[in-house]
Structure formats: structure tokens, C-alpha cells
Design brief:
By secondary structure, this protein is an all-beta fold. It has no helices and 10 strands. Helix content is 0%, strand content 42%.
Length: 118
């Protein structure tokens, strides 16, 4: 079984094996593929573990969080306002593990216009 979620100008599919596909507008790295190119077909998003949920902003330049099956958290996309949780405002073009959350087991996450929560 798959899970589908939509962000601003993009769509993510979590496949039953925990891998992720994305398509849509690629600006700000919002697809998480490592580049800012748009894709009209689903493309693989690189993760260092299996994903159980993704939440993606719907009102900003595009950022997302993913929660792994082991409770880890990754973020990517537009980094303005520090909303990716990496201690800076850098844009991340592919999912990056949030180091400050490494010792936590996260079960839920959500994103807003200029913020994220887990």
C-alpha cells in the first residue's frame, strides 16, 4: 500500500517498501531529488532509511519533512527562516537528516508557511 501527499506544486508517494517518489515543480529543491528541475513523471527521492510519512508546505516556497520508520526526521526544500531545522537558512535540494533530532524518536511532524514541527 502506498501513501500520497501533496505540497505546493508537488506530489509525493511513499511506496509500501518505504521508498519515495516525487513529481511536480522542482524550484527550491522542493522535490528532494538533489536538483531544482521540475518533473512531470515520478522520480526517486534519496533517503538513508525507510519513510513512513511526509508533510509538505502548501503556502511557501516549498519545504518538506519526512519521518522515518525508525523515528528519524529529514527535511528539504527552501530553508528561509530556519524552517528546515539545520541551524541555518540554507536551501536543501535533497532530504537531509536533522542532526539535533537524531536522539529523538519522532512519530508525527507537520509544516506550515514558515515553520516546521515534529
Amino acid at each position: 500500500m502506498s501513501h500520497i501527499t501533496a505540497g505546493q506544486y508537488c506530489t509525493f508517494v511513499i511506496q509500501s517498501n518505504g521508498t519515495v517518489l516525487a513529481n511536480g515543480k522542482g524550484s527550491y529543491g522542493r522535490l528532494g531529488t538533489g536538483i531544482s528541475a521540475s518533473s512531470s513523471r515520478p522520480v526517486q527521492v534519496p533517503f538513508s532509511g525507510s519513510v513512513k510519512m511526509i508533510c509538505s508546505s502548501k503556502g511557501s516556497d516549498g519545504h518538506s519533512l519526512a519521518v522515518g520508520r525508525n523515528g528519524e526526521v529529514w527535511s528539504w526544500g527552501d530553508g528561509d527562516y530556519g524552517k528546515l531545522g539545520h541551524g541555518d537558512s540554507t536551501t536543501q535540494k535533497q532530504p537531509m537528516l536533522i542532526e539535533s533530532m537524531r536522539t529523538k524518536i519522532v512519530t508525527q511532524a507537520d509544516v506550515g508557511h514558515r515553520h516546521s514541527a515534529a
